[in-house]
Amino acid sequence: MVKSKSWTMVKHFEGLPKLEDFKLEEKELPPLKDGELLLESVFLSVDPYMRPYSKRMMKPGDVMIGSQVARVVESKNPAFEVGTYHVTNVGWTTHFISDGAGFQSLPKEWPENLPRSLAVGAAGMPGYTAYFGLLEICNPKEGEVVLVNCAAGAVGSLVGQIAKIKGCKVVGSAGSDDKVTYLKEIGFDEAFNYKTVNSLEEALKNASPEGYDCYFENVGGNYADVALQQMKQFGRISVCGAISLYNDSVPATGPYIQTYMLFKQLRMEGFLVTRWMQRYPEAQKHLLKWIAEGKLKYHEHVTNGFENMPAGFIGMLTGENIGKAVIKV
């Protein structure tokens, strides 16, 4: 018998999640039936979306939502060979039985010099989010100015680099001096620590006095209120996330945005990356090519040990990571 460990949510989070909000449980898995396969998680992903979606999708006692790169260790399904790797969405668990429905298989030509964790990172969902969210919604043109906040995160760091590939000037903000240094290392034209500047408005103006054509939004809240005022005419805003608001117990209020939208004739659009699910292979092909060519650099913040998943999740929400936060089992 194979034993599976899973992290469940004890109760819905109030404010920032705490370690006591999670419980580690263990169960024995039954023998495989025809058509089934047994997988073990190798890398698990922790992402900002898990915070708001846990309230929408889960009830206390459920296994925490999330994706992983998993390896087939036993198969009674001829479509899935032992030893192959797949991206799945079965939550925070070490072993599981499946019929393979909904799997995203890693390509057989996966580069040997690249970690498979990238399938939940720069060449996976965060990469797809950056690729489609920037190119389909903002549609940046060569020479335009692109603003990215949370720019040292899993998505933002890729957005900035893809914008550079497209010939844009890129401005990024992050929450530490180390992150700002990282942004400059990967090619951002301007970068600043939003926590230490005297004025966010002045920092944005200094970075691009002429304003911004595109704004990739990951933060929301007061940052967005300030940034919208500095958009150029016909600017485009891609709303990927609002991490500054996810842990608020009381909904925040801010200035009304309609006047900025109206008089600057802005276009703002929110998105969920699953809109382009049928085009994931296209995005992954481009992302892996850019990585191989050295045009797209990645950084992983790896937490070792399945027992440390809650700490890794909380650390990601508080900004401990540069690049993609992953858990290595």
Describe the structure.
With about 325 residues, the chain is an alpha/beta fold. It folds into 2 domains: about 1-120 and about 300-329, Quinone Oxidoreductase, Chain A, domain 1 (Alpha-Beta Complex); about 125-275, Rossmann fold. The protein is about 25% helix and about 25% strand. Strands 3, 4, 5, 6, 7, 14 and 15 form a 7-stranded mixed sheet that branches. Strands 10-9-8-11-12-13 form a 6-stranded parallel sheet, sandwiched between helices. α2 crosses α3 (about 155-165). It catalyses: decanal + NADP(+) = (2E)-decenal + NADPH + H(+); hexanal + NADP(+) = (E)-hex-2-enal + NADPH + H(+); nonan-2-one + NADP(+) = (3E)-nonen-2-one + NADPH + H(+); 6-trans-leukotriene B4 + NADP(+) = 12-oxo-(5S)-hydroxy-(6E,8E,10E,14Z)-eicosatetraenoate + NADPH + H(+). One of its GO terms (cellular component) is cytoplasm. GO terms for molecular function: 15-oxoprostaglandin 13-reductase [NAD(P)+] activity; 2-alkenal reductase [NAD(P)H] activity. This is Prostaglandin reductase 1. It is found in: Cytoplasm.
